[in-house]
Design goal:
The chain is α+β, with helices and mostly antiparallel strands. Helices cover 18% and strands 38% of the residues. The protein folds into four domains: 42-136, Thrombin, subunit H (Beta Barrel), CATH 2.40.10; 149-251, Thrombin, subunit H; 257-350, PDZ domain (Pdz3 Domain); 355-442, Roll (Pdz3 Domain), CATH 2.30.42.10.
Length: 443
């Protein structure tokens, strides 16, 4: 390098070193420098920090606590956790958050961006979609408009606002990395928006916002080996969150759609065995009398391949597509019958406790579906479906099993099953399989 070139580079570097940040231009070629600050100023006041406290009973390290035995004093302590929420109705004080943020809460407090604190109460909650609605006294609240998450596309810029690690109103930015993600959590119904905007513990229940300043998702989960952000976060789409909220406000509960079919996932091996023309979809193996499926004209051996505009490759996708809709909604169902594709419209019925999904009860039952047994004089629970390779399948459950007892307690219906399973990490299922009985351990 010549002496002249070295001198030029030295002059350039010296010039750069002597320029302070305050000297940087606020315009380039007459155009303002881009900034998210105006957007953040508008939407951040609608995001709240949530503090939850609950009383838990701790186990004594010495087994049976003598104080509890003799004096009846439980070994209880109060624990606190933090999350986030989004004000979506300032007039009535309604806030969207995650079910897991407020689950089992004894007391809920929210804090606004101006550090005001308000007491909150749970209006309703849905574990299957991880959405909850809480309410505060509407005092000088700012709401965030709800956008249409169906319009979100991969590559869209988004920001996430929440309370990670207790750091109030933290803002991160990124893009939409993927849509329609499933199999992420242990919830029953999933259709996540994936984003690389940093999401960490405490962000749960916070806002995922588009560049129009609209809520397009409720931040819910991350994938991480360390518990911190690795650029893979997930949000419940606003269309789902809004639908769940409206059902809770209208009915006091979630009235989830029901098609009324038992299905088997079609894969290449099953398609070859059946001589089917498609190698993916959901094979109808049973139709409940009087159900939406029967009323619409579906038949056993039909293969469902699409619901509305959503392609159906397996049974889980069909369960998601139907379960994320409300009862009374109409859906267009495309299916293959005798080698020909057909479409029909079904008006969904309402799910009741006559059917349940294992994910809602225990991680070890994930992949199994249950119904109250009613076809013989045996009292118990039918295992109506078990997904191959699922946790339930790995622990030995099979479709057609009848569960008659759990942890030595007889089970007659789903309410009893849910009651016994709740809070127990280890389950011993007494199962009738054909003419024999066996015990399965579920962890």
């Amino acid at each position: 390098m010549s002496t002249k070139v070295r001198l030029i580079w030295a002059t350039v570097l010296l010039s750069i070193a002597t320029i302070g940040f305050t000297d940087l231009p606020d315009k380039i070629a007459g155009q303002p420098m881009p900034s998210l600050a105006p957007l953040v100023k508008n939407v951040a006041p609608a995001v709240v920090n949530i503090r939850v406290s609950q009383t838990v009973t701790a186990r004594s390290p010495f087994g049976d606590d003598p104080f509890r035995r003799f004096f009846g004093t439980p070994n209880e302590r109060e624990v606190a956790s933090a999350g986030s929420g989004v004000i979506v109705d300032a007039k009535n004080g309604y806030i969207l958050t995650n079910h897991h943020v407020v689950k089992n809460a004894d007391k809920i407090q929210i804090s606004l961006i101006n550090e005001d604190s308000l007491d909150a109460e749970v209006v309703g909650s849905d574990a299957a979609t991880d959405i909850a609605v809480i309410k505060v006294d509407p005092q000088n609240l700012v709401e965030l408009p709800i956008g249409n998450s169906d319009d979100v596309e991969v590559g869209d810029f988004v920001i996430a606002i929440g309370n990670p690690y207790g750091l109030s109103h933290t803002v991160t930015s990124g893009i939409v990395s993927a849509l329609g993600r499933t199999g992420i959590s242990q919830n029953s119904y999933e259709d996540f928006i994936q984003t690389d905007a940093s999401i960490n513990p405490g962000n749960s229940g916070g806002a995922l916002v588009n560049m129009k300043g609209e809520l397009v998702g409720i931040n819910s989960a991350i994938i991480s080996r360390t518990g911190g952000n690795v650029g893979i976060g997930f949000a419940v789409p606003s269309e789902i969150a809004q639908s769940i909220m409206q059902q809770i406000l209208d009915f006091g509960e979630v009235r989830r759609g029901l098609l009324g079919v038992t299905i088997t996932t079609i894969d290449e091996e099953i398609a070859k065995a059946l001589g089917a023309e498609v190698n993916s979809g959901a094979l109808v193996s049973n139709i409940e009398p009087g159900s939406a499926a029967e009323n619409a004209g579906l038949q056993v051996d039909d293969i469902i391949i699409r619901v509305d505009d959503e392609k159906i490759d397996n049974g889980r996708e069909l369960a998601n597509a139907i379960g994320l809709k409300g009862s009374g909604e109409q859906v267009d169902i495309e299916f293959v019958r005798s080698g020909k594709s057909q479409t029909m419209t079904a008006t969904l019925g309402q799910q009741t406790v006559s059917r349940s999904i294992g994910t809602e009860m225990h991680p070890g039952l994930t992949g199994a579906q249950f119904a109250t047994h009613s076809t013989s004089n045996i009292s118990g629970i039918d295992v109506t479906e078990v997904e191959p390779g699922s946790p339930a399948a790995q622990r030995g459950l099979r479709s057609g099993d009848i569960i008659t007892a759990v942890n030595r307690r007889s089970i007659k219906n789903l309410r009893e099953l849910q009651s016994v399973v709740q809070g127990n990490r280890i389950l011993f299922l007494l199962v009738r399989r054909g003419d024999r009985q066996l015990i399965l351990q579920i962890r």
